[in-house]
Amino acid sequence: MLEWLLRQDLRLFFHINNQWQQPWLDAVMPWIREPYLWAPLYLFLGLFVTINYGWRGFFWIVLFIVSFGIADQSSSFLKDTFNRVRPCRDPLLQQFVRVLVNYCPMSGSFTSNHAANHFALGTFCFLTLKTAFQQYAWLFYVWAFAIAYAQVYVGVHYPLDVAGGAVLGTLIGLLSGSFFQRRIRLEAELTT
């Protein structure tokens, strides 16, 4: 069963990395996975919660950062445990992998930190901001999925790596978001 799953994972990787390529995606995908690209979103969210929710917004920012940290460290632990070779580092695959970034990390491949971190943040934001963003709250998952997909597209992760990271991150986001909703919850500050 595991061997079949890994074969399907490799097959899907080559579809995403080689067959489903587009010149415009080749230009966009390396940027999608860069944290600096998303700095304006983080700044907007931080300002949004502090301006609209006062001291509760401060605790929201703290739990946002804690969610990221827990996801990042948990994923790094799993990478060290499984020690799966990245597609861009695998000597049997290197010549077939399109690597669209300047650097292929030396760390293990399973699970993807990018996926874990962004699904943790996306889930946390979805749970805590769905009242404020209403029907647009699902865009947090689109954001996380785009970053995870980009990791496969540029050749640094397999689909199972990002799927594992997505599951890990979603669980962490559920825990932190549920805790925040039970204990603090974003409610507008009353001004008199």
Automatic annotation (TrEMBL):
Keywords, A to Z?
Answer: Membrane, Transmembrane, Transmembrane helix
Q: Name one GO molecular function term.
A: sphingosine-1-phosphate phosphatase activity
Tell whether Transmembrane helix is among the UniProt keywords.
Answer: yes
Which branch of life, at top level? Bacteria
Q: Where is the Phosphatidic acid phosphatase type 2/haloperoxidase domain?
A: 59-177
InterPro entries, per the entry: PAP2/HPO, PAP2/HPO_sf
SMART domains the UniProt entry points to: acidPPc
List where the protein spans the membrane: 41-70, 136-156, 162-180
Q: What is this protein called?
A: Undecaprenyl-diphosphatase
- The scientific name of the source species is Chitinophaga rupis
